Known about the structure:
The structure is a homodimer.
Chain A: E1 3-9, E2 22-28, E3 36-45, H1 49-54, E4 74-81, E5 91-94, E6 101-105, E7 112-114, H2 131-144, E8 151-155, H3 160-170, E9 175-180, H4 183-191, E10 197-200, H5 207-217, E11 222-227, H6 232-239, E12 241-249, H7 253-256, H8 267-271, E13 275-278, H9 288-300, E14 308-312, H10 317-325, E15 332-336
Parallel strand pairs in A: 8-9, 8-11, 9-10, 11-12, 12-13, 14-15
Antiparallel strand pairs in A: 1-2, 3-4, 3-6, 3-15, 4-5, 5-7
Helix pairs in contact in A: 2-3, 2-9, 5-6
Amino acid sequence: xxxxxxxxxxxxxxxxxxxxxxxxxxxxxxxxxxxxxxxxxxxxxxxxxxxxxxxxxxxxxxxxxxxxxxxxxxxxxxxxxxxxxxxxxxxxxxxxxxxxxxxxxxxxxxxxxxxxxxxxxxxxxxxxxxxxxxxxxxxxxxxxxxxxxxxxxxxxxxxxxxxxxxxxxxxxxxxxxxxxxxxxxxxxxxxxxxxxxxxxxxxxxxxxxxxxxxxxxxxxxxxxxxxxxxxxxxxxxxxxxxxxxxxxxxxxxxxxxxxxxxxxxxxxxxxxxxxxxxxxxxxxxxxxxxxxxxxxxxxxxxxxxxxxxxxxxxxxxxxxxxxxxxxxxxxxxxxxxx
Amino acid sequence: xxxxxxxxxxxxxxxxxxxxxxxxxxxxxxxxxxxxxxxxxxxxxxxxxxxxxxxxxxxxxxxxxxxxxxxxxxxxxxxxxxxxxxxxxxxxxxxxxxxxxxxxxxxxxxxxxxxxxxxxxxxxxxxxxxxxxxxxxxxxxxxxxxxxxxxxxxxxxxxxxxxxxxxxxxxxxxxxxxxxxxxxxxxxxxxxxxxxxxxxxxxxxxxxxxxxxxxxxxxxxxxxxxxxxxxxxxxxxxxxxxxxxxxxxxxxxxxxxxxxxxxxxxxxxxxxxxxxxxxxxxxxxxxxxxxxxxxxxxxxxxxxxxxxxxxxxxxxxxxxxxxxxxxxxxxxxxxxxx
Lengths: 338, 338
């Protein structure tokens, strides 16, 4: 049986997550049972939601169990199969976790999905044509519901969600303004991702300064906001929202580490008659086919060309993950396992 | 021409509103022009939104101009008419302001509405069968969208909005829990207004204590919340909201006075996948007839019997208004002008 390096959650963070929370171990993969397939992972996806699962707190998913392989999305190749549904050599996306191989019960609906790499590179199925892309699609179409000519803003603009959001919004005739950290990301957002403007939040010391920059970038106000970070950025955007604006909420990176971040002026929800709605994209699986079809088309036609940050080898995953939480990645954060 | 005592906004509050912000003056009403009617007010409505208008700040309505009659809802009788639309002796509801008479251009749509006092007492058109009642109706039906058996919570439970909310929610088969200040209001809420339980927030020193009381009162969690106050109450309710809960936001009394109140844990909007939406009921005039019809029926059949706090005489309006902002009223706050 193949040797399978894997990374476990060894203990929970008390404040910021650290390398010491993780542990690398190596096991043999068990022999396959009937109905199971063995998948050799090519790429592992690192995503902010994983930080939430490291806490033993009320969250939208169960906490990551201690002493078990860290969960996570993977793409790879079937190398052995005792299921009629999959054959060796087929490429699949699944939730294989932070390890080199996974053994999967192939009959569980949604456990593995075959993918086609003729028009879409394999790792894109973890980003633009995967969970982050569908997240952008759902927030844009089901919560923000944009009209042509409206102004939309997204934070973490150059990440997997932000880049898909820009492409989806531009095809609907919207003005799209990004918020990102640092001049390189901002330049990339406008040069490559189609953003009309991108604001470097690191250049703005407080809510008022960031809000002024948003006002300059959004002279007609903000109609929709896709929230990825929380804290000062959310406060600043809320000050510039138009009446009847919509805020889609799918992550608050700033919240995952340490203490809760308040929303300083919730009365704006009333005075501007805003709608703010949180969602988890895995609770809307019925919409994934429609979303993935559009995202595939955007990639195949060159309208969505997301950037990736690729860490090399499973052992590099914890450090890459901690960097992601601090915004050190540039584009979709992956770990190459082959 | 009749003598018309009126109360002006003389200067704006710097923190809490005070009696010194208002000024009582007396003028003659001007002669009527063609198309105008003269209305003698019987009751003036006092409402929390008026506090927001006293500030010179971004709000959902234009600020109350200085040196002008305070705006406000009124019911009264047409005493003179140069319009074919209204005759002397007819009872009408309108926005006559803090004064004894108003001169109204009768052709402006919605400026005056005739009312029928056979089944509904005249002052109810400022409360249960008026703007506050429609506010409760809109928040319940258009934002919370309750299902039978769900648990709903409303703050400021014995006020004009809260009492209508309870009656509307009970007819839809919901469990309705109120939050109010003091044992007398809480007893009234359960004895007379149909609440299943009412929690006295003054008995709970902090968010955690209030949240525990809510958990006890709502063993199946909270599916919908009608928010009237903000601050600690909102924080406590959010901790007990079920997944996919809805929060309708039409007022934040606690916000009107002094500094903004933060929402301490907005990440709950994400982890519980909540929808929170602010609204202003005067922006949805197309729905008023449907809402008023149901509210009239609830009053006529005795299912909605709201309580009123009535101040005597125009000169008492400022003090009654300041009391309303501190929760000293018990039920809908009115000023009797006749």
